[in-house]
Amino acid sequence: xxxxxxxxxxxxxxxxxxxxxxxxxxxxxxxxxxxxxxxxxxxxxxxxxxxxxxxxxxxxxxxxxxxxxxxxxxxxxxxxxxxxxxxxxxxxxxxxxxxxxxxxxxxxxxxxxxxxxxxxxxxxxxxxxxxxxxxxxxxxxxxxxxxxxxxxxxxxxxxxxxxxxxxxxxxxxxxxxxxxxxxxxxxxxxxxxxxxxxxxxxxxxxxxxxxxxxxxxxxxxxxxxxxxxxxxxxxxxxxxxxxxxxxxxxxxxxxxxxxxxxxxxxxxxxxxxxxxxxxxxxxxxxxxxxxxxxxxxxxxxxxxxxxxxxxxxxxxxxxxxxxxxxxxxxxxxxxxxxxxxxxxxxxxxxxxxxxxxxxxxxxxxxxxxxxxxxxxxxxxxxxxxxxxxxxxxxxxxxxxxxxxxxxxxxxxxxxxxxxxxxxxxxxxxxxxxxxxxxxxxxxxxxxxxxxxxxxxxxxxxxxxxxxxxxxxxxxxxxxxxxxxxxxxxxxxxxxxxxxxxxxxxxxxxxxxxxxxxxxxxxxxxxxxxxxxxxxxxxxxxxxxxxxxxxxxxxxxxxxxxxxxxxxxxxxxxxxxxxxxxxxxxxxxxxxxxxxxxxxxxxxxxxxxxxxxxxxxxxxxxxxxxxxxxxxxxxxxxxxxxxxxxxxxxxxxxxxxxxxxxxxxxxxxxxxxxxxxxxxxxxxxxxxxxxxxxxxxxxxxxxxxxxx
Length: 707
Hints:
Blueprint: H1 2-13, H2 23-30, H3 35-40, H4 47-52, H5 56-59, E1 61-63, H6 72-82, E2 88-90, E3 113-115, H7 123-130, E4 138-143, H8 154-160, E5 165-170, E6 186-191, E7 222-227, H9 231-246, E8 254-258, H10 267-279, E9 281-286, H11 289-292, H12 297-300, E10 302-310, H13 318-326, E11 337-339, H14 362-371, E12 377-379, H15 395-399, E13 407-411, H16 418-423, H17 451-455, H18 463-470, E14 476-480, H19 510-515, E15 524-528, H20 537-545, E16 551-555, H21 566-573, E17 581-585, E18 590-591, H22 593-599, E19 607-611, E20 616-617, H23 619-628, E21 634-639, H24 643-657, E22 665-670, H25 676-680, H26 685-692
Helix pairs in contact: 7-8, 9-10, 13-14, 20-21, 21-22, 22-23, 23-24
């Protein structure tokens, strides 16, 4: 109390007293403070704050999903103090909390929305908790091995019968609680079932006979399914779809299935799609590529006011896109999110005799831009979108008209200035193969490190510079090589060799990276397979200008035999005060004392992932970094060190910091070790999905799919 009084008197002497602000202003300020701090700490400072911290606007919704400092005792006290005032509780990804923590949720008698994805919940605990939550209408849970629906009480089933929205992540073949939810309007299913058990036994997708009744879909408005790689996931999702094929819900307006690889169409799924074409009008659509390729499905489906389309990895041509989806520009002002990732022919009139590297037809993209003028999220990655040297406008010039864009994903070869490529042939450095073979001595052009000097080198006149200047409010940008593949695929051994970059991408380097620094509000940046990075000088500009940057992912920049941008990266990191997630994937990366000293300037950093074939690390430097950066709760390193070095460092970090950081997750392991996939399966899904595994995330899902 004495410290508080002295603090207030100091404020008064300077003419400013926080307590003199209006309640409205104070409530707005307090809304940025984690709820656990408000209730357990801030409200104990003075009477006024004691009242404000319990205001309904602050206790109505409690978000614990990224409050990495929360523990079981804090949750217990929080529920005891304000449990009855909580209407929405989000504990998604709180993997570090013991399952007994869920018992305290029963104090929240008025809960309407509850998210427990990533939490440890047994069938019995779920039954006990849901039996007391009679007002619940939205629920998200995981279904793990050992889940038994027969253990759910009648009171629990009564609660589930009133649930309107269900998000269910499956780690075992099961219907979960879906059959109990007889009033479902929104169903989100995430299939994360592995084909083999830990013991090496093959799993079957056939659900146990008598495990559940038939799911109830008659009121369904939204159906979403995302499948991880694996045959079992495909088997199980077909069982969920079987009911839909018998009778399509009349009110269905969003139907989305995200499936990697080949997911063949069957008679049942064909009947489902035919029924949808006859009976429903959709607002959101995503289908496996095999269901769209070569079929006339899109010609028959009807759309109402579509806000999301994903044709990821489909062979859909630009001609079909314009004719069957955009429909001449009619009724597409409502479209806010479009995913054409891996859709290699989507900007060409036809795909029959076309090569993937052929030039695009700019008139198709222009039609798309005009028709979908309100797009906020656009993904054009994983394809060769080469602008013509002589016909039509450049891709970057056309995209600059989309003034509402918040997130954008582009292939590296699409941003190169065609005129520059014609005037100047590739330099010797550009022609060096991107392999791990014998090194070739080449002359290195010296690039200026100052942004003003770079501007004098024609970059302000480039089409990519102009694009970045026109998208001032862009928050997420991905520039990924069209042939890039991460060294860490999901359920397979690490990839040892990568494909060379596209010829058109050979000139993309430091000046293009510098152009990104114009994005003042940039929060997330991904750069992968930019072959002409010579010094990384553009990274410094981004660090200086993009002060809101929270997520940074860099992969395979410059020559593959040496990390040419290390000095610039270290300079950049000194300015990234808001950076929370950093992912680096680069062969021969040296995670030494200088790197970690620079990284220690990122005071907000929470998650670090380094993937490096033949990479090295200094254990002492890692330990010092973890001691200095108190917010770091995830450290994943997949390097070229021995298994003994990795295990010893991992154990040292856990032993030294686990007690003070309950959410600490550490994985340090040789990248090329045969047991890598077994190690990966134990990583919490939150980290695995958001940072450890590389993927394009722009327009991956419809906006606001879940709260």
